[in-house]
Design a protein that fits this description.
Number of helices: 19
Order of helices and strands: HHHHHHHHHEEEHHHHHHHHHH
Strand order of the largest sheet: 1-3-2
Structural class: mainly alpha
Distance between the termini: 43 Å
Strand content: under 5%
Number of domains: 1
Helix content: 55-70%
Length: about 375
């Protein structure tokens, strides 16, 4: 095995730029800033207005100089990297991180944020919307006991701690009422954040454990283990792969339900509502009154899509799932995708770096990927037939 010092001696410019980017991008974690700080208050106001007054969300202030950070990113001498594929990759990294900074500094500024989010995450295509509607046409499953939300956040925390023991990595757990999801992973601080006032079902505990810990936490710690810091900080446009991989983990562990796929489909519909110019209240009306979602679920899905001024990221869970599913069906190695915050389109570059001795073996794996435990023929049929 080539030592890290030997690698740095062989590829000095690459390691210098990678290390400098690592130093610069510590504050660029979009999820730290995108979640409103007044979620519950605005939900009460929205419901009290009988769904007529759009929420007025407030956000955490950014604690870095966005302009100076942009300047420092573009001062990197990318042309000093000799290998063409690696040079082009790091050039894309600069543009991607620059786009994320623009997203962060325009949070809460309406269309300015939305257009920046479009550059970073895209928007659902007609095909994506058709896939979502295809899933929504399936008849709802019978509500079984595992779907009832009966566990409080302390019980959920204990479940996740017990689930994590087999991975042998240490992370922080934080409770918050300022997140839009039931749980989320903060990559830079290795923290699992749980929503304080949320009630979890037995199925959701399994879903979140396999999603947040089995993938997001595993890719965080695997990414930290490699010589190149970019595996931890994140490849360009890695969100689709990471979220697709996380939902695929739900599938392989046998807890992906039609209910969950429908939830992801409603997120596509909400993201598409932004493109169609709908306001929050109009998108809520679409989900609540036309699609007959209960008001709590409709509100949360709209919150996720409309936070910041229009955050399109949520449609990528479904598109990412299909791409990872196809990758798996071809017999490709899922461990490559678990090597960090990577993008499925860069697997050949990862393999090249591996041949250079640049990447070590992943210290952590997702145990759900050992065996396919999905027993639902409906789920298999859907995944096979998504376009």
């Amino acid at each position: 095995m080539i030592s890290l010092e030997d690698l740095k001696g062989t590829y000095p410019n690459l390691f210098k730029i990678d290390a400098e980017l690592h130093r610069l991008v510590q504050k660029i974690e979009l999820l730290d800033y995108i979640n409103p700080i007044n979620i519950e208050q605005e939900k009460k106001h929205f419901f009290a207005s009988r769904y007529n007054l759009n929420p007025n969300f407030k956000y955490k202030k950014i604690d870095f100089n966005a302009h100076k950070l942009q300047q420092a990113l573009f001062l990197q001498d990318i042309d000093a990297i000799k290998d063409e594929d690696t040079r082009n990759f790091y050039r894309d990294v600069i543009y991607d991180y620059s786009g994320l900074i623009q997203c962060i500094e325009t949070i809460g500024k309406g269309k300015r944020f939305y257009f920046n989010a479009l550059k970073s995450f895209g928007t659902p295509t007609d095909k994506d919307v058709a896939n979502a509607r295809f899933i929504l046409h399936f008849k709802d499953e019978k509500y079984n006991q595992e779907m009832f939300p009966v566990f409080n956040v302390e019980e959920a925390q204990n479940y996740f701690i017990e689930f994590s023991k087999k991975f042998k990595f240490q992370y922080h757990v934080k409770l918050s009422n300022k997140i839009s999801a039931a749980a989320m992973v903060q990559n830079n601080s290795q923290t699992l954040v749980l929503k304080k006032n949320h009630r979890f079902s037995a199925n959701q505990l399994k879903v979140l454990a396999n999603h947040e810990i089995g993938v997001h936490m595993v890719t965080t710690f695997n990414g930290m283990s490699h010589a190149l810091k970019i595996f931890h900080n994140g490849f360009p446009k890695n969100v689709e792969t990471q979220e697709g991989l996380a939902v695929f983990s739900e599938y392989m562990s046998g807890c992906l339900t039609l209910y969950r796929l429908k939830e992801l489909s409603y997120r596509v519909i909400a993201a598409d509502s932004l493109l169609n110019g709908l306001e929050f209240r109009e998108a809520f009306d679409l989900l609540h009154n036309q699609y007959k979602l209960n008001r709590e679920e409709a509100y949360n899905i709209c919150l996720r899509a409309y936070r910041g001024g229009g955050f399109t990221k949520d449609y990528t869970y479904l598109t990412g799932l299909k791409k990872v599913y196809n990758y798996y069906k071809k017999g490709e190695d899922l461990n490559v995708l678990l090597s960090g915050k990577v993008n499925i389109s860069h697997t050949s570059l990862i393999e090249k770096w591996k041949s250079w001795g640049m990447i070590s073996e992943n210290p952590y794996r997702n145990f759900a990927f050992d065996k396919n435990n999905n027993e639902s023929k409906t789920i298999d049929f859907i995944l096979e037939n998504l376009k």
